[in-house]
């Protein structure tokens, strides 16, 4: 029975803290696409740095891309910008060229 004592429970993730999140996810900007109904799609942008004004960015996106959009406050994800249509590549190029954000800090998701 002394061999069973070696099978004590060991948690390898106990030293990471309560959430287990390393914080890398917060440094990235995530650009995703969601399918609505039929051919309609929705582009979501989350994780913009605090230096950017969310409302002003939404206004710039709407004017440059000729689409409608809204700002949604999610309790888990923070503020999320939603744009109508597939605007992923346009948002990526605008953030890299005009916003001065490194392309490695942006994650492009979808299809």
Low-confidence stretches: 16-25
Listing every helix as H and every strand as E from the N terminus to the C terminus, the arrangement reads HEEHEEHE
The overall average pLDDT, rounded, is 83
| Whole-angstrom Rg | 20 Å
| Global morphology | globular
Number of helical elements:
3
Q: Count of DSSP E strands?
A: 5
CATH superfamily: SUI1-like domain
The helical percent reads 10-25%
User: Taking strands numbered 1, 2, ... along the chain, how are they ordered across the largest sheet?
Assistant: 3-4-2-1-5
Function: Probably involved in translation.
Domain SUI1: 29-99
Region (Disordered): 1-23
Pfam families: SUI1 (PF01253)
Describe this protein's structure.
Strands 3-4-2-1-5 form a five-stranded mixed beta sheet. The longest helix is centred in the middle third of the chain and has 12 residues, at 54-65. With 111 residues, the protein is of the alpha+beta class. Helices cover 23% and strands 26% of the residues. It has one domain: SUI1-like domain (Translation Initiation Factor Eif1, 2-Layer Sandwich), CATH 3.30.780. Keywords: Protein biosynthesis. InterPro entries: SUI1, SUI1_dom_sf, SUI1_euk. Residues 29-99 form the SUI1 domain. Probably involved in translation.
């Amino acid at each position: 029975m002394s061999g069973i004592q070696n099978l004590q429970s060991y948690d390898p993730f106990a030293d990471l803290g309560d959430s287990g999140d390393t914080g890398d996810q917060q440094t990235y900007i995530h650009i995703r696409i969601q399918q609505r109904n039929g051919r309609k799609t929705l582009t979501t942008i989350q994780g913009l740095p605090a230096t950017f004004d969310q409302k002003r960015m939404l206004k710039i996106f709407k004017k440059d891309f000729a689409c409608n959009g809204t700002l949604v406050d999610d309790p888990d994800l923070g503020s999320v910008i939603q744009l109508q249509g597939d605007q992923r590549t346009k948002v990526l190029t605008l953030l890299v060229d005009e916003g001065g954000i490194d392309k490695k800090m942006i994650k492009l998701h979808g299809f």
